[in-house]
Amino acid sequence: MEKCIAIVPPETYQEPSVSEKVIWTSRYNLALWLRIPEVLNNRLRLVLKYEDAKGIHALVVDEVIVARNNVLLSNLVKVTASGVINRMSVFLYSDTGGFDYTVDELFAQRKLTAKHTSANVAIKKA
Fold first, then answer.
1. What pLDDT band is residue 125 in, cutting at 50, 70 and 90?
2. Residue 60 CB contacts under 8 Å (≥ 6 apart), including other chains
């Protein structure tokens, strides 16, 4: 099962100094607190998806097997983007079909200043 939990606000990931030909990195602190009425022996994954000039990318933030009614998935993830990030979203994946849950809190924050490097463009001679 794949479920979009939230769309990350653009002000969280936009970097004004980025152009189309720049490869840059930034780090994000992500946390998702869930309340699950029934304890399931189910694996959950928190995934950050983003779209840049090279397409859609997915990073696994955290993974847990549900053994309690309250679940925390969190981590600091490094995003390497080519050019501008057009969209960023947080997804929840589970190994089984649908199940009931309540999102108690979702947190997404950029932690470090972006680091830029120029994209090297190789030109082939004919």
1. very low
2. 45, 46, 47
